[in-house]
Amino acid sequence: MMRNALKNPLLIGVALLCASTLAATLADGTVKELSARLQAPQVFFLSGLMMAGLSLMAAHAGSRVGMFATTCLRTSAPWLMAMRSLATVLASLGFFYAIKLIPLAEVFLFVGLMPLMSALLSRPLLGETVQPAAWGGLVIGLIGVAMLFPEGFSGLTAGHLAGFGGAFMGTVSLVVSRMIGRREMNTLVQVFYPNLALAMAAMALLPSLWQPMAWGDIALIGLYSGLLFLARWAMVMVMQRLRAPVALPLMNVQFVWMVAVGFLFFGEVPAMATLIGAGLVMAAGVIALTEQARTERKARLAQSNHVIPAE
Fold first, then answer.
1. pLDDT at 82
2. What average pLDDT score do residues 88-105 get?
3. 3-class secondary structure for the chain?
4. Contacts of 56 (CB under 8 A, 6+ apart)
């Protein structure tokens, strides 16, 4: 049974997603500390170079043991890779300023909007339909998101707007990642180019923003880069195994990590409405996962019952 579980793409995708969201949240906590002292381009220039370097090192090591057939410098979908790279740069900027200006638990509001955005994008870009049960889950998730603003949207700030922009571009990046994954088996190429693009875009703004850094800040950027490298690599593998309308609702488990990191390291205590709303959003993820499992089970059953006619 354990061997079959290890071969199940759905279970592997869920496990990778949990690991990715945990690593991403720890990276968010690190960059929140850095954002109080450094500007985004300075952080992204160094972290982008570090993550691109980690991609090269991992690709070289993987090719030596037969894990990868090519290096991470080759892609069979250059235009899609350019689109994903641009979306990643814009999403990174949006989330950087959201994390800087608002509590981590409120950043979850915009992570919670990503499943609805993915549902709207998946049909025209991926041809993946969203089943009625999954739409029901998305509606529940949207109600949960609305509960995070019990006094209405009049309290929106620049941090919230940055988070919304980051969420939209992040959704575009992940949906395009699934498009690339249909024709590109090398997962590291999807980590290398977006992070290289992030470093190059940040470099253009550095002359007017660069300021001296302590060794402690450089070490934090190194930690942030390592965590985010693992998060992004794992998420690419998730998008190869799970449909976008399923993967993104499941990302709402990140709220648990965000509350824990915000409380332990920054003393942030979420309001009761935030907790209730987050519970609804996470329930939407469970509904989406159940729907995909049911659909895949029906497909396997239909395939096993298919009889090939005798010649």
1. 93
2. 85
3. CHHHHHHCHHHHHHHHHHHHHHHHHHHHHHHHHHHCCCCHHHHHHHHHHHHHHHHHHHHHHHHHCCCCCCCCCCCCCHHHHHHHHHHHHHHHHHHHHHHHHCCHHHHHHHHHHHHHHHHHHHHHHHCCCCCHHHHHHHHHHHHHHHHCCCCCHHHCCHHHHHHHHHHHHHHHHHHHHHHHHCCCCCCCHHHHHHHHHHHHHHHCCHHHCCCCCCHHHHHHHHHHHHHHHHHHHHHHHHHHHCCHHHHHHHHHHHHHHHHHHHHHHHCCCCCHHHHHHHHHHHHHHHHHHHHHHHHHHHHHHHHHCCCCCCC
4. 71, 72, 73, 192
Please state, as a whole number, how many other Cβ atoms lie within 10 Å of the Cβ of residue 103.
20
Output the pTM of the full model: 0.71
Tens of pLDDT, residue by residue over 114-133, are 766 777 777 677 666 666 76
In a 13 Å sphere around the CA of 45, the CA atoms on its Cβ side amount to 16
Condensed to tens digits (0 to 9), the pLDDT of residues 142-194 reads 777 666 665 656 667 788 888 889 989 988 988 888 888 777 777 788 888 99
Rounded Cα distance between 254 and 22, Å, is 7
Place of tokens 């190869």: 240
CA-wise closest residue to 239 among 80, 110, 32, 105: 80
> Residue 225 to residues 83, 110, 268: CA-CA distances in angstroms?
22, 22, 24
Query: Residue 75 is encoded by which pair of tokens?
Result: 């892609």
How many residues comprise the chain?
311
**Of the candidates 253, 183, 207, which has an alpha carbon nearest to the alpha carbon of residue 20?**
253
**Encoded amino acid at 21, one letter:** T
